[in-house]
Write a structure and sequence with these properties.
By secondary structure, the protein is mainly alpha-helical. Among the domains are: about 80 residues, Cytochrome Bc1 Complex, Chain D, domain 2 (Orthogonal Bundle); about 80 residues, Cytochrome Bc1 Complex, Chain D, domain 2, CATH 1.10.760. It is built from eleven helices and no strands. Helix 10 packs across helix 11. About 20% of the residues are buried.
Length: about 250
């Protein structure tokens, strides 16, 4: 009996030692946080803020993704700080761009939004558009859709097809579902800035050496927007749908 008890005591002690060593080594386990979580309001590093709030749509380092590249120097040339702040703070109604400002129901403080703007702006290459007459961010004169159709044929159809429904080099630009996801301003912005990360040239280079004029930009945007549909994604004409007879399924 004494021998068995002695063995039991030694076994318990050994087990306790193993558990103790295991607990002591937990600090070396991968994935274990080595610092106390930071209050989200206290994050002031631009790269962290961008990665957590912008990169999912605009791509890592502002190089473009599902949404336009925030590091595009043409975009940074036409969009003022107040414009970028308004978009980041309030979002864009009717699109996938949410409001980030705390005052608008978002998660970021005004200071954090200012940090994002300064960081995004710092990517602009000084002098890269020095000799270019960049069209204005917002429309300065009404566009004419009929003229815009001709502008599209000359400048865009080689990639997007003769009717904008897609070609060998680029997809449809008049698709109703696409136009339902973007704002009028987004269409104008992309016509001016292009999508260089996708191979789409900016307003200067769809015909090299012959940049689009301010009016041509407005006209082609007006034509593109005529393709918006009231009910995007609807596979039938309005008024043509009828309910199936009772018992049909």
């Amino acid at each position: 009996m004494i021998g068995r008890s002695s063995v039991g005591i030694h076994g318990v002690a050994a087990a306790a030692l193993v558990i103790g060593l295991g607990l002591a080594s937990c600090s070396d386990l991968r994935g274990r946080p080595d610092t106390i979580a930071t209050n989200p309001d206290e994050v002031v590093d631009f790269h962290i803020l961008e990665r957590q709030n912008c990169s999912g749509c605009h791509g890592p380092d502002g190089k473009g993704g599902a949404a336009i590249a925030l590091g595009n120097p043409v975009f940074l040339a036409i969009a003022s700080d107040s414009t970028i702040r308004a978009i980041a703070s309030k979002g864009v109604r009717g699109t996938q761009m949410p409001a980030f400002a705390r005052s608008e129901g978002g998660m970021l403080t005004d200071q954090q939004i200012d940090i994002l703007i300064r960081g995004i702006r710092s990517r602009a290459r000084a002098g890269s558009l020095q000799d270019a007459s960049v069209p204005s961010y917002e429309t300065t004169s009404p566009g004419d859709a009929q003229r815009g159709a001709e502008v599209f044929k000359r400048r865009c159809s080689s990639c997007h097809g003769p009717h904008g429904e897609g070609g060998e080099l680029a997809g449809s630009i008049v698709n109703g579902s696409y136009l339902a996801l973007v704002s009028d301003q987004h269409v104008r912005t992309v016509v001016i800035t292009g999508r260089p990360e996708l191979g789409m040239p900016d307003w200067r280079n769809n015909i090299p050496g012959h940049p689009m004029s301010e009016q041509e930009v407005s006209d082609v945007v007006a034509w593109l927007l005529t393709h918006r549909t009231q009910f995007p994604g609807q596979p039938y004409r309005v008024g043509s749908w009828r309910p199936a007879p009772s018992g049909a399924f």
